[in-house]
């Protein structure tokens, strides 16, 4: 499996996309290339319901281009799927046969249920979401699903999407009240046949796909959101309503100039959000949650891990993947620091009230604190901060990613504040104090293995009102370097924890 590369081609109704995934020699997975071409296949259907010849010509040209990219990368497994535009075309068999003849590529025609299933797999493997509704508004179809306890229970595929609705109702310019009512009536009529849609109130409304990602970018731009990720971004329903009514009153040329909105989506974003709003109200959901993963990610997991494609713990997978990508970090030392830090945390937790979420942050930070050495050892903490906030830590919120980065790179409260200054809107004063406390725990654990020789095996921790006595049981060598490091760290540690760490050898009574 060393160096294996997988190419996923998604022939959607709005665009055709390629993603090339690589499995590195160390077992990490990463995207090494990708491509996108706007297709608008759903708007290129004739009166007989057939996809136009020129659209098929463009499709084949795009597929040839993507095949060349895959060949360049030595892709060993290529998988191409098609969704609503081809699925609903009257000449679907002729399309698939011509593609096979002229490109050699066999296209899988996904049913609406399969499309929803792969979208769910991509989402559930990238988020800490146990219950909710999942929606994907594509160009020619809309998939809505219900999941509970991370299990897909219900799904339906509606035969309309942002491109097909844009063609039917001509919403390129301003969307009138009457036209909006027509779109809403269409969605309501289709949804009323599925009682489960309105029988599960109070859940998050998770969105995947281009329409929802575009909505997230628009909202982030409107409030100058400081963190450059839409994945795991929350939006309130009144924010969506405000953006929608603002956009539907704008002519296309002015809509194209909206910050955060790509020009190739300006004409179809309005009908897409119109559908989104109706379904949100029908499900009686609590809030919108943007997911950056989706169909292609689900296809990757199903292809790469066919027997266990659904992850039990997306965060743990992300941490393993990130550490495997950055191999300059001394693995045994990092594992020792992680173990000692969690032991120290558990010991303090017995006398000071500490939450489970704090332990999760510390666990992640200690696993990642040396990844910056892959760029430069002498300033690895600064590089670790950068790499963490620009990586995928699936299962963490934006705030938790920032806190993990600050804990992993912690040197002092002043430096942490400076690093987090651009993201001040997301970090509270209480968060900053927790960063300092957990950052110092990490530093103490690193001090206990300063020689990077894993000298300490078992560690006994005794905490009094003023001290934390650290007693290694039968250390495997001298701890002179470690004792000096702990003594230097002690004043700062006491400032935030109100106890002073002391390292000593264990003497049996």
Question: How would you portray this structure in words?
Answer:
It contains 19 helices and 14 strands. With 509 residues, it is of the alpha/beta class. The chain folds into 3 domains: 5-110, Nucleotidyltransferase, domain 5, CATH 3.30.420; 113-296, Nucleotidyltransferase, domain 5 (2-Layer Sandwich); 314-503, Hypothetical protein af1432, CATH 1.10.3210. Strand 2 (15-23) and strand 3 form a beta hairpin.
Task: Summarize the model shown.
The protein is an alpha/beta fold. It has helices at 53-72, 84-87, 92-103, 112-124, 162-169, 177-191, 210-222, 237-248, 252-255, 269-283, 295-304, 314-325, 331-349, 356-368, 380-389, 398-408, 413-420, 429-447, 480-497; strands at 5-11, 15-23, 29-38, 77-82, 107-109, 132-137, 142-148, 151-158, 205-208, 233-235, 288-290, 458-463, 467-473, 500-503.
How does the SSE layout of this entry go?
Layout (H helix, E strand, L loop, with lengths): L4 E7 L3 E9 L5 E10 L14 H20 L4 E6 L1 H4 L4 H12 L3 E3 L2 H13 L7 E6 L4 E7 L2 E8 L3 H8 L7 H15 L13 E4 L1 H13 L10 E3 L1 H12 L3 H4 L13 H15 L4 E3 L4 H10 L9 H12 L5 H19 L6 H13 L11 H10 L8 H11 L4 H8 L8 H19 L10 E6 L3 E7 L6 H18 L2 E4 L6
Parallel strand pairs: 1-4, 4-5, 6-9, 9-11, 13-14
Antiparallel strand pairs: 1-2, 2-3, 6-7, 7-8, 10-11, 12-13
Helix pairs in contact: 1-3, 4-11, 5-10, 6-10, 7-10, 8-10, 13-14, 13-18, 14-16, 14-18, 15-16, 16-18, 18-19
């Amino acid at each position: 499996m060393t160096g294996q590369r997988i190419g996923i081609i998604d022939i959607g109704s709005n665009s055709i996309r390629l993603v090339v995934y690589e499995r590195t020699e160390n077992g990490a997975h990463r995207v090494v290339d990708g491509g996108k071409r706007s297709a608008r296949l759903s708007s290129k259907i004739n009166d007989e319901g057939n996809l136009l010849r020129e659209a098929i010509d463009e499709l084949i040209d795009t597929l040839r281009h993507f095949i060349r990219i895959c060949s360049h990368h030595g892709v060993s497994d290529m998988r191409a799927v098609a969704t609503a535009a081809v699925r609903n075309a009257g000449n679907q068999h002729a399309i698939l046969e011509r593609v096979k003849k002229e490109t050699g590529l066999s296209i899988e025609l996904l049913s609406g249920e399969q499309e929803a299933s792969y979208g769910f797999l991509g989402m559930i493997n990238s988020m800490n979401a146990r219950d909710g509704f999942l929606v994907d508004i594509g160009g020619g179809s809309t998939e809505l699903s219900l999941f509970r306890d991370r299990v897909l229970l219900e799904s339906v595929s509606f035969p309309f999407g942002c491109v097909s609705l844009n063609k039917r109702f001509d919403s390129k310019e301003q969307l009138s009240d009457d036209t909006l009512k027509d779109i809403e009536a269409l969605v309501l009529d289709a949804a009323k046949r599925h009682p489960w849609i309105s029988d599960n109130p109070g859940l998050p409304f998770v969105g995947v796909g281009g329409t929802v990602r575009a909505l997230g970018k628009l909202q982030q731009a409107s409030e100058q959101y400081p963190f450059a990720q839409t994945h795991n971004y929350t939006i309130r329903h009144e924010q969506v309503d405000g953006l929608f009514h603002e956009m539907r009153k704008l002519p296309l040329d002015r809509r194209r100039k909206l910050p955060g909105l790509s020009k190739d989506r300006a004409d179809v974003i309005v009908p897409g959000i119109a559908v989104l709003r109706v379904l949100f109200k029908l499900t009686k959901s609590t809030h919108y949650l943007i997911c950056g993963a989706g169909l292609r990610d689900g296809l990757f997991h199903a292809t790469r891990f066919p027997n266990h494609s659904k992850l039990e713990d997306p965060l743990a997978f992300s941490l393993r993947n990130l550490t495997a990508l950055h191999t300059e970090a001394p693995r045994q030392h990092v594992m020792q620091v992680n173990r000692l830090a969690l032991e120290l945390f558990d010991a303090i937790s017995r006398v000071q009230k500490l939450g489970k979420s704090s332990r999760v942050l510390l666990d992640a930070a200690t696993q990642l604190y040396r990844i910056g050495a892959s760029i430069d050892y002498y300033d690895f903490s600064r590089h670790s901060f950068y790499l963490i906030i620009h990586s995928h830590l699936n299962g963490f919120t934006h705030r938790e990613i920032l806190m993990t980065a600050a804990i992993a790179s912690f040197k002092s409260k002043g430096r942490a504040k400076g690093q987090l200054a651009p993201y001040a809107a997301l970090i509270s004063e209480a968060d900053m104090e927790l960063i300092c406390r957990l950052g110092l725990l990490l530093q103490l654990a690193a001090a206990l293995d300063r020689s990077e020789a894993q000298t300490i095996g078992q560690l006994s921790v005794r905490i009094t009102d003023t001290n934390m006595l650290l007693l290694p049981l039968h250390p495997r060598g001298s701890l002179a370097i470690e004792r000096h490091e702990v003594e230097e760290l002690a004043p700062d540690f006491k400032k935030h924890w109100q106890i002073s760490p002391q390292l000593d050898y264990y003497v049996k009574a």
